[in-house]
């Protein structure tokens, strides 16, 4: 069982997202917290970025995905992000917390949290 985590906190992306017609003509802000379970020991031992998950690369991929996919539901975006990370990076599992900022009045935030595991590693 891998206990190490590479994470990204509070990554904000402005994009078109929402169920209702009025939401399809404006940009709203999504905020991602992502935890990627991966063994960092090899990278730490030889101090080598290529042996771990590059969080800056992941963040860029997430921004691109969130801007390109104009989904209705945040569930759809969270699932696509999880599947992208599992497919493209050496992680055993990923947890994606996705908040839609300002979506519901009188709330601190609304969102979804999903965890997905890779069967390959
Ligand atoms: N579980 C969800 N509920 C709602 C979503 C969503 O993406 N997932 N979206 C909306 C609207 O787009 C909302 O953000 C606008 O007020 C409503 N509920």
From TrEMBL:
The gene is folB. Belongs to the DHNA family. It comes from Psychrosphaera aquimarina. This is 7,8-dihydroneopterin aldolase. Its EC number is 4.1.2.25. InterPro entries: Dihydroneopterin_aldolase (IPR006156), FolB_dom (IPR006157). It is an enzyme of class 4 (lyase). Residues 6-116 form the Dihydroneopterin aldolase/epimerase domain. The keyword Lyase applies. Pathway: Cofactor biosynthesis; tetrahydrofolate biosynthesis; 2-amino-4-hydroxy-6-hydroxymethyl-7,8-dihydropteridine diphosphate from 7,8-dihydroneopterin triphosphate: step 3/4.
